[in-house]
Amino acid sequence: CMKGLVVGAFSVVPPIAELPLLNSSKNILLVPCMFDCLERDCQRLTLGASKFDTSLMRKNLMFFLLPQMVQYTFLPCLCLPLSVFKNPVCKVYRFQTVESKWMLVREQMEECTLSFSIPKQLLSLYIQEDMSRVQDLRELGELSPHWDNLRKEVMTRYGGIINSYQETLAELDKITGRSFKPSCCKAQKSLEFIPINLHTQRMRVTEEGDAFYDIVTVGAPAAHFQGFKCGGLQRLLSRYEAEKKSFSTAYQCIYYSPEHTAKAQEVLSTVSLLQPLITSLADQLLQAAQEHSSPGLRDALKNLSDKVRQPPNPPSQLHPPVTRLKECVMEVVEKAKRAMTFVLLQEAACSIPQGFFLQQRRDVVFSQALAALACGFVMRLYAGMQDKGFLRQLHLVGLVAQFESLLSTYSEEIGMLEDMEVGISDLQRVVFQITEAKTDDLSDLQPLVCGRRDHFTVEVPLPRLVFQTLPEEIRGGKPLRVFPVLFNVGINEQQTIAERFGDISLQERINQRNFEMLEAYYKSLSEKVPLECLPCFQTQTDIKELLETLGQNVVTKKKKNVEILWIAGTICRRLNGIRFTSCKSAKDRTSMSVTLEQCALLRDEHQLSKDFFIRALDCMRREGCRIENVQKNIRCRKYAFNMLQLMAFPKCYRPPEGTYGKVDS
């Protein structure tokens, strides 16, 4: 590393969560001292200071290097990150400010257990949902020979998906100890549901105070195993909907739009919940009558109907009508279920076989996207647990999740971007709920997924002592929304070809559409939450002004307009949002983006000297967490670029000499 920049670099091995000094009975973490070797590094590598104050440095290191270890010491909540994040890699730097002072900067990169646990839970839910669909088809009863043959074919297709998912789940269950998928495995079938190279990264800055900045890095959610020869989901789904109308004539079916079939699935989900709910309420009514409980009768009747009348006295008067009510509900549910199942049978018959392939592709992409989102949500929640303004925003409006993509709109990567667009959009079907954990054990603090393809809930358990500090609305189980937005700007040599000879309309449409969504989110936020709840930054540019600038950049015809990404990222941080950065593998272009963003934050928020900006940037790229990420993925400390490729990159996205070369990525 360049002299005068780095204080020390270390990897925490073994992972903190596996250190023998964790007293699990009291959740007390005892940390071994690493200060002596770091102090020697400081004395050896720090230049530009006539006298090195080791006592001050030791004090700073005590406060700065191990805050995440020490801060988990005395409360059950303090082991929260250990339940989800593991295998940390840390790097520490010392940079000069414009006032010739020194600031300490600590990078920490970690893997996330949700890389595997979320996809495995989703696979189980997909299997359960499809088995239920097969059972519904069986229960349709006798059909004409034409429809009976179609039913058998549809059930066979579902059976194929179920078997495939069961095999994948069995393969994943064999994997133990791993918590990330390296980029070299991106096209491996048994791992296709797992996000590529998912990591969290936190930059912590210590001057007079303490500040930190988080980002989640992940390979673009895409079906790499299935390939991109015919494009990605966005293009395939559009083509499929057009072709389905002609299929409906061939199969003697009624054509149903995606909206209609989604409504049918929603009705099925609703009626499956209706019968047990009504039956339960009716049983409560009878129980209250037998106990001669007037308040109980009123409560039960109120739940059955908003119009409460004087309840009858003898329980015998209630039994016949309540029994009849339960029978009627069962009859209505069965009729509705059969009708909607037949609608879905027609839709499925028109979909053979393309619709089933597309559903599998969509399942794969969504699984990767949800694992990344859950990781980011948990990281943001843990960081904001003491921030009342953030918690208020969380339950009143929800959080924006801003995905930055660096994919080109050329060749295979256009298919990846088409997959990613649909995968990120599908995250709108997800809500989060905070629950009270059964115990404070780490195994009970793992997020859980429930639901069906049309609506998933991710439950995030917290220890009792932490849970009790949350606002009543969150403790009451209020669904917490996320608003996913995606901005893409290609920066490599393939994007140069696309801009000169190809088509960049996909990128333009994505950026315009998601700008409108981000603008709508801000409008909703400003109506429901005081802007004082939002974090304070040194750069005082108004969010409205930033949005206007972003809107102008989105419609401006400018090649490789990376300002779109910079402004969108700034807005996300100003809105308390969750930041994600992606490229094909989250390894090379992503590393250039993350390090650039970190140095820009040091410059704008912590007065990093302009003379140190490029040196700091090169230092992070040469010695920081991102080169360690490259090493973890391909067993080589080289970014996968060559000189010709880099000539097409914007200058600020080019790594320093000696850190890149031809490697297998």
How would you characterize the overall build of this protein?
β6 and β7 (210-217) form a beta hairpin. The strands form 2 sheets. The chain has an 11-stranded mixed sheet with strand order 1-4-5-6-7-13-8-12-9-11-10, sandwiched between helices. The chain has a two-stranded antiparallel ribbon with strand order 2-3. The radius of gyration is 28 Å and the shape is globular. It has helices spanning 35-45, 54-64, 67-70, 80-84, 114-138, 145-174, 233-250, 258-290, 294-304, 315-350, 354-383, 388-396, 412-426, 464-467, 472-475, 493-501, 505-528, 543-555, 563-574, 589-606, 610-623, 625-634, 643-648, and strands at residues 6-11, 22-23, 28-29, 85-96, 102-112, 199-206, 210-217, 399-405, 430-436, 448-452, 455-462, 480-488, 578-582. The protein folds into 2 domains: 111-232 and 352-653, no CATH class; 258-350, no CATH class. With 665 residues, it is α/β, with parallel strands linked by helices.
